[in-house]
Amino acid sequence: MRPVLEVILSLLAVAGLLSLSWLLFGRLLTPAGNQETVSLVPGTGDGETLEEAVRGLLWLRGGGMLLGSLVIVDCGLSPTGRAIAAALCMREPGVEICRLSDLAGQIKRELKVEK
Question: SS3 for 67?
Fold first, then answer.
């Protein structure tokens, strides 16, 4: 019984050290550090890859590796693509959509830049 307990405790200790190392290494490699960013996700066509891209950025933001907002840029979305983008904006906090022509104004609003 004792050898089994030692193996289990050793595995738990190794898993804990790996988790701690993963967190520290991820913190060192944080792309933007503590800088607020505006992440742009171009949306085209039916928005086939839109949800995947937004989820990836939300995962980074959830892990503290990315700070700031996400903006879906309408670069020729079809009505289906616009519906997908609107659903993502309603479902996820901090995700917005804007047209390509309004991009400069949107970035200024997000970064709170004075005109």
Answer: strand
Cβ neighbors of 111 (< 8 A, separation 6 or more) are 36, 38
Q: Residue 38 is encoded by which pair of tokens?
A: 């505006």
pLDDT at 105 (0 to 100): 82
- Looking at the whole model, is its pTM more than 0.85? no
Q: 109 to each of 9, 12, 17, 35, 52, how far by Cα in Å?
A: 52, 47, 42, 16, 25
Q: How distant, in Å, are the alpha carbons of 10, 40, 100 from that of 104? A: 55, 12, 8
Place of tokens 């995947």: 52
If DSSP codes are grouped into helix, strand and coil, which group holds residue 91? helix
Confidence of residue 90 (pLDDT cuts 50, 70, 90): very high
Pairing of strands 95-99, 36-45: unpaired
Provide the token pair at 15. 């898993």
Selection from 42, 106, 107 nearest residue 77 by Cα: 42
- Nearest-Å Rg of the Cα atoms of the chain is 20
Q: What is the mean pLDDT of the chain?
A: 85
